[in-house]
Specification:
By secondary structure, the protein is an alpha+beta fold. It has helices spanning about 20-30, 75-90, 100-105, 150-160, 205-220, and strands spanning about 5-15, 35-40, 40-50, 55-60, 65-75, 95, 110-115, 120-125, 140-150, 165-170, 175-180, 185-190, 195-205, 225-230, 235-240, 250-255, 270-275. The strands form two sheets. The chain has a nine-stranded mixed β-sheet with strand order 10-11-12-9-13-16-15-14-17. Strands 2-3-4-1-5-8-7-6 form an eight-stranded mixed β-sheet.
């Protein structure tokens, strides 16, 4: 596909009120290793999903909220080009601190605030700190995130027009999937009354890995918020758990890749099978 400056979703930082519950969920149920690092006076938990330094950073706080969304950019030249596009669109772009670059393993780091108030980071470089990683739980990385917001049109303008993501598909009444590489989507944007992360997806290597995580979630009485199923659009097989911050983690595998010849379309119903929601689905298509 035509190259864009942003190559992939790199990391997500969260402020969390119950760090112990998060590390227990990641370790016992999902088999994800957690290390700790200092940031100022705070101790941050770093979730090791693959061979890179981290993909999920958890910082103790009095409030559960997203802290930063990090995207990996191809090169310093592309970072400069995207910075200019953001500036031209009215966004104030600042350099990350030396400490922030060091924590993320980046050689360059810039950030801006998106239309709903989230800090979005653009990073060049990743620190590969583990070789021959043993992944008994089958976790292979951070897949995608879904942002819900009442400012959907402005977020679409940011990601599609300014940051050059490609629309893959969509579903009424207001759910749009975007890609920055061959993976079906790295971000989805949804209409909602309040801004939030609806879910983060943790990639797994096979359906067996997903199934074993499902067994562990049941054994540890982790709330399964959306049952096992296969999505209609990206064909991924997954289930969702409710994490200690209140939103979902999707445990999935098998999503399709798409190329430049892909035609965006409304994919109709949400799932091939399964994915029954424990609570009301905020993105359910209206009944005819």
């Amino acid at each position: 596909m035509t190259r864009v400056g942003i190559r992939k979703l790199g990391y997500v930082g969260l402020d969390v009120t119950d760090l112990d519950a998060w590390t227990d969920l990641l370790g016992r149920t999902l088999g994800v290793g957690v290390t700790h690092a200092k940031s100022g006076t705070d101790e941050i938990a770093l979730a090791e999903l693959d061979e890179f330094k981290y993909r999920l950073a958890l910082r103790p706080s009095t409030e559960d909220r997203p802290r930063e969304l990090g995207w990996i950019v191809d090169s310093p030249r592309e970072l400069d080009r995207l910075t200019q596009r953001l500036t031209d669109a009215g966004f104030a772009v600042a350099d990350g601190s030396v400490e922030e670059k060091g924590l993320r393993g980046a050689t360059q780091l810039r950030w801006f605030t998106d239309p709903v108030g989230y800090r979005v980071e653009l990073a060049v470089g990743e620190a590969k700190v583990r070789l021959g990683v043993d992944r008994p739980a089958g976790v292979t990385g951070l897949g995608h995130l879904v942002l819900a917001s009442p400012r959907l049109a402005e977020l679409r303008e940011l990601y599609e027009s300014v940051l050059e993501f490609k629309l893959t598909d969509y579903r009424a009444p207001g759910l749009f999937f975007f890609r920055c590489n061959r993976t079906h989507h790295s971000i989805a944007l949804a209409n909602a009354e309040t801004a939030s992360i609806h879910h983060l997806e943790l990639e797994h290597g096979s359906i067996d890995d997903v199934g074993r995580a499902y067994d562990r979630a049941q054994a540890h009485e982790v709330p399964i918020s959306i049952s096992l199923g296969r999505h209609m659009n990206d064909k991924a097989i997954s289930f969702y758990v409710r994490n200690p911050s209140g939103f979902h983690l999707e445990i999935g595998c098998g999503g399709i890749e798409v190329g430049d010849d892909w035609v965006p379309h409304d994919f109709g119903r949400s799932d091939e099978w399964g994915h029954h929601h424990a609570d009301a689905n905020p993105f359910a298509a209206p009944k005819s």
